[in-house]
Amino acid sequence: MARGISMQTYDGKTMAKVIGTNLPVSKKIAYEVTNHIRGRPVDKAIALLQDVQKLKTPVPYKRYNKDTPHRKGDFAAGRFPEKAARYIIPMLESLKANAENKGLTGELILVHAAAHMTGKRHRYGRIQGLKRTTHVELVAAPKVEKKKPAKKAEPKKEKSTPKKAEKSSEAEVKKETADKSAGSKSESKPKETKK
Questions:
Q1: All structural domains of the chain
Q2: Which terminus of the chain, N or C, has fewer Cβ atoms within 10 Å?
Q3: Higher pLDDT residue, 68 or 1?
Q4: Alpha-carbon distance 148 to 144, whole Å?
């Protein structure tokens, strides 16, 4: 496990990471945003969050969706978390730069995106309350194309007949051999009898 990141299978040679600590974003909102962009190419994730900032594409809220209004699209509840997008877009751009520095080529896919709650930070003074901050982790890896194994041309096998058919065919073969042997005896010259 890599130090400072929750991804168990992180490989520093083939993956690039970026960690945003103490972002002034609600953990629940950051969770929904990271859940929405996980598994997407980095460029598409950036474009998607830019559309969220322009109030064109909502982010579906799947877990923290109490009193969340419905939106048009393939999902029910959703919102436009503009503030979370404002902080996550620079992280995605930094992730691309980190991958270029490592020499990772090809289309980058977000293999890990997570939001974690931070320690509680209290406001001091007469106005009391908590500051909501969140740690966000993003990991990208180049897309690996899986090669399908080539199918080998197998010789055609004769169709095997069921056992009942085999038994009947064996019986027919025995009958034919018996008929042949009987026919060969009748064809042979009859034995001479003594007078």
A1: 16-142 (3.90.470.10)
A2: C
A3: 68
A4: 12
